[in-house]
Design brief:
single chain; mainly alpha; 3 helices; about 60% helix; elongated
Length: about 110
Amino acid sequence: MNEIGAISGVSGSSPETQITVSNIGALSPADTAQPVAEGFDAMLAEAIGTLDEKVAEADRMVAQFAVDENTPIHQVTIALEEARMAVELATQVRERLTEGYRQLMNMQL
C-alpha cells in the first residue's frame, strides 16, 4: 500500500498525470499543474452568451425568411423553438437562483 491515488476533480485527471508515492520525484511541475476550473460565474456568462447567440440566430432567420422565399419554414421554426426553450431555461435558472438566495437570507443563525 505504497501508492496514493489522485483524486479526480470535475475536470478529471488522466492516468499519466496521477501522482503516486513512487513517481512523485519523477514528475515535473508542468505534469502536476491542473487546469484552473471555471467558476460558476464563468459558466453562467457562457450560458448567457449561448442564449444570446440562439436568439440572434432566430432573429436572423426570421428576417431572412421575410425577405427570401427560399428559406425553409421548418428551419425558421426550429430556430425559433430553440431560442424559446433557451430563454425559458434561463428564466427557470434565474428563478431558482433567486429563490435559493432568498432562502439563505431568511435563515436564522
